[in-house]
Amino acid sequence: KIKTNAFINTIEKLFLANAFLIIVFGVFFGFPILESYPVSGRWGYNGLLLDRVITQLIYGILLLHRWRLKNPFDWKSVIYIICLVLSGQKAGFLWVGLFIMIVVIRRPFWRTTILCLYISFIALFPYVVKFIAPFSMFWNNIYEDSGPWTIFFSTRNNTIQKIWENNKNDIDFIDFIIGGVVRFPSDIEMLPFDLILYFGIIGVIGCCWFLVKWVSSWKWAIPLIISCFAGGFFGSFSMPIFYGLFLYSSLIVDNKP
Q: Per-residue pLDDT for 254 more than 60?
């Protein structure tokens, strides 16, 4: 327990220092080395420490970890939220939105209201994005080439279609049962699709059973919910390790979900 807390404290210090670089030298001075998507023309900053997806995950779970303390909404929580937004990834906004709806807000009425607002935004996305896309050359090109839903899914819908076109003649019943439709490094970065492509129906059932037993609350299910739409949660071995350590700390140190 002591070693786990010491490790988490070290991670927190490193990522607070990284946040300083993001905010000061990234946002204000525009250092390219700090960008989430260098040379692409896509806006966003993830700092120097790790891959942008892993960095976003750690800022998210640091936010969840911080909220379990007696005075959760302090300056560190604000910094983590800022870094999620500044990542330039739609998943960063999803992190913040789910955090507010699941963790911050307690009353069912307001949770339902916010959920309805999120659903309304998704339904209106094709109409909203045509006014937002022109502000970014990167996203405007994708909008003109592939339409609004390709922006919404960050081209993952195109990846699904491509994998299907490349493998539809070779897929058989066994592939759907035990997996093996694709092999690394092919992935979609949407957890349900990646699980069934790699491990089949048996793998999906086994993974769901394990996660239901392992994840203690809806708060700590947020990283998994996000991975269903953005980010390959099991694409990097370090991501479930970090997630597991923070989840372990939540269970053992607090002795509650």
A: no
pTM of structure? 0.85
* pLDDT recorded at residue 153: 85
Token pair of 123, please?
């339904």
Whole-number average pLDDT of the chain: 83
Lowest pLDDT segment from 58-72, 102-116, 230-244: 230-244
Residue corresponding to tokens 């953005």:
230
Percent of the chain with pLDDT over 70: 89
What is the per-residue DSSP string for the chain?
Answer: -HHHHHHHHHHHHHHHHHHHIIIIIIIIT--GGGBSSTTTT---B--SSS-HHHHHHHHHHHHHHHHTSSS-SSHHHHHHHHHHHHT--HHHHHHHHHIIIIII---HHHHHHHHHHHHHHHHHHHHHHHHHGGG-HHHHHHHHHH-HHHHHTTTHHHHHHHHHHHHTTT--HHHHHH--SS-TT---S-HHHHHHHHHHHHHHHHHHHHHHHH--SHHHHHHHHHHTTSS-TTTSTHHHHHHHHHHHHHHHHHS--
Q: What distance lies between CA 134 and its chain's CA centroid?
A: 25
Mean pLDDT of 107-111: 90
* Cα–Cα distance measured from residue 248 to residue 242, given in angstroms and rounded to the nearest whole number: 10
- CA pair distance 201, 227, nearest whole angstrom: 18
- Is the confidence at residue 5, as pLDDT, over 80? no
